[in-house]
Each structure stands twice: as C-alpha cells, then as structure tokens.
Amino acid sequence: MNFNIDFYKQALEIEDEIVAIRRDFHEHPELGFEEVRTSEKIKEFLKKEGIPYKEVSKTGICAIIKGIEHGKTVALRGDMDALPLEDKKDVSYKSKIQGKMHGCGHDAHSAILMGAAKLLNKNKDKFKGNVKFLFEPAEETVGGARYMIKEGVLENPNVDAIFGLHVAEQIEVGKIGIKYGVFNAASNPFTIKIKGKGGHGAHPEDTIDPIIIASQVILSLQTIISREIPPVYPGVITVGAIHGGTAQNIIPSEVEIKGIMRTLTSEHRELVKNRLVEITEGICTAMRGKCEIDIEESYPCLYNNDHMVNHLKLSAEKIIGNNNIEILQHPSMGVESFAYFSNERPSAFYFLGVKNKERGIVNPAHGCLFDIDEKSLALGISIQCEAAFQYLTRN
Fold it and tell me: Where does this protein hold Mn(2+) (predicted)?
C-alpha cells in the first residue's frame, strides 16, 4: 500500500471541533482517577465515530481501529488528568472548577488523541494492522500507565510500538522537539523518620536531638550527587519538607524528612537509593539516634528508541519540514508516566511546541497562567496520524 494522505489538511478540517473539545476539557478539569466526565465525553465521541473501546484502570480508555488486513499494532497515548491548581488566566475557557486546572496540557493531549482517532478511522481502508488509542488517567499522581499495562492494554492484539507527545511552552508553535535516548528522569520519593530523645531546650545533654541529626543527614545526602555520581550524569536529591518540634524551648523526639531523587540511569538510581540508606543510617547511629526510611518506586526513566525517533522525525518532516524539528541535547529531570510504556515497547516521545510570544503564551506548565496556542492541535493530530500510518504501511 502506498497512499499519500494529507493528514494536516484533514486535521484543519476538524480543527474547530477539536479546539471546542479542548476548551470544554479545560473548563471542566478533573484530577487523577476522578476523570469521570472527561472519560464520558471521550466515550461519547468514540461511539459517534464508530470506534470500539473498553474501559480500563477506573477512568481510562483503550480504543482500537482495525485496518483492512492483519498486521502490526501501533499505539498512540494521551493523558487526561488535571492539577490541583487555581486557574488565573483571563480567557473564555477558564476553569470552572475552583482549585483545579489543566495546567500541564493534558486537555490538549486528550483532544489531539481524539482527533487522531477520528482521522485514522476515516482512513482505515488505507492501512493494514491496528491502531490503539490509550487515554491514560492519573498521569500526574501515580502513573496511570502502569495500571493500564497490568490490565493488558498492550496485548490482544500485541502492541509493537507507541508514540506519545507533550505540549511544550518553551518551543514555538509550529515546531517539535525530539530526543534520542533518555528523555525523562526516573524518580524515587522518600520519607525519613529520625527518632531521638526529646527534652527541655535548656538541657540538650539529656536529649538526643533529632533536629541536629536531620540537619546532618540533609547536608550529607547532597554529597551523593556531588561526589558519587559522575559530573557528566545529572542527578537530583531534593528535600522538600521537614517537620519536627512544637515550640522554641522543646527538643522533639522525632523529625520527618520528605524528598525526592531523580536519576537518568538504572545504575545511578540504585546507587542513590542505596547510599541514601547507608548515609542516613550511619549518621543516625553515630549520633545515637534511630531512623525509619521509606523509598518509593515511582516513575522509571523514559527511554526513546532510536529507530522510532528516526521514524517520527521522517513523519514530522512531511507535516512541518525539517527546519521546524529541534534535536534536544539534554533530557528533562522531570518525570513522565509514558516511561512505563517506553519500558515495555519501542517508543518515541516528543515535545509539541505551543509557545507564542506575540499572544503572550509563554507561561510555564504547572503554573496558574499556563495556556497553549491552539494552532498546535492540528499539528499534533497530523503528526500522530502520519507516524502511526507510516509505521503500519512502511514497516
């Protein structure tokens, strides 16, 4: 099969519909595993388009389009959840839900995936194989992808490859950013409880001060990054919270530290976890205290497959031209739930530019003024369609 489909032209034909969907989602944001309304809207859309689907992972959806013959299966993913954030933009589609906002672009991701489903369904007589559409819940919190994987969204039929995108306010609309290798860091949140012996602040000799111990621990943990990880490999240990004590003249019996680790290789991930335990236990023992350490296994590294990135690049060139494709040199130390998919199947994840200085669309994601240039929606739809279509017809 050798069809030449102008997906961008087709995307422009449904642009108004997709913009309306995105704005509706933006006005009605829902947090992780609470995306009931969002899920219903997506299912209504799929029913209208005649696209079969199944419900997964509470509010998630796995839809599928089958081509004219058996063949490979490619998946496209879009996340659905919003953030616990107050929307302070002055726009007609401002969030109507107090304290909740699509501050990371997942409304756009879902709308783009719906648009891609509509166009690929329209052209399903021109490819063989299958396209799965993964609408992921709870990306921002627990990583809905891992629950979807456990429930079999990559099986029956087996998914051979996956494409995903994320809107990026640092890239101009009309452009995308791609990267080979590691795209996002792995994360490990941790909690450390340091136990000492409380007492009167005027008589420290009668106590084992957990605040002093905690201070030593916090400073020493930074040496893992500065002295045990090679400088050419980024890593982060952030202590974001410390709680202990009730008054100026009382030494408490316990202090709690909360933080997060970010690493870019599985080897460094294990090293940082192990050394955090060894250093914390060593300091507590030396200072006559005790500790309890809990390290969570959170998002893994997001690995882009080189072959898949090359395929994506060729597909995107057809839509936006080579001059509008930025090759990113550095990974993000942020995390991304798509990583769970990328650890299971060959994948390509990329940034879709949404920045527009002239319109003041420059504010960072996870901020109360975040917005996108909606011209990016048709581009996202067409690139996703082209990547999936070319994968099924040329591989």
Answer: 104, 106, 140, 166, 366
- Tell me what pLDDT residue 3 has: 75
As a whole number of angstroms, the longest Cα–Cα distance in the chain is 84
User: Would you say 104 is a known binding-site residue?
Assistant: yes
Q: Packing angle between helix 36-49 and helix 106-122, nearest 10 degrees?
A: 10
Q: Which amino acid is at 364?
A: P
Q: Look up 340 and say whether it is catalytic.
A: no
pLDDT digits (tens, 9 = 90+) for 247-282: 999 999 999 999 999 999 999 999 999 999 999 999
pLDDT of residue 395: 62
In CATH, the architecture of 7-184+301-394 is 3-Layer(aba) Sandwich (3.40)
* Dihedral pair phi/psi, residue 97, rounded to 5°: -110, 115
d(C-alpha 36, C-alpha 33), whole Å: 8
Q: Where in the chain is the domain with CATH 3.30.70.360?
A: 186-295
Please check if 200 is assigned to a binding site: no
Q: Is the pTM of this model over 0.90?
A: yes
Residues of the chain with CATH 3.40.630.10: 7-184+301-394
Specify which residues 199 forms β-bridges with. Answer: 251
Residue 28 counted as an annotated binding residue: no
**Active-site annotation holder among 299, 303, 340, 391:** 299
CATH topology of domain 186-295: Alpha-Beta Plaits (3.30.70)
Amino acid at 331: P
pLDDT beneath 50: ranges in the chain: none
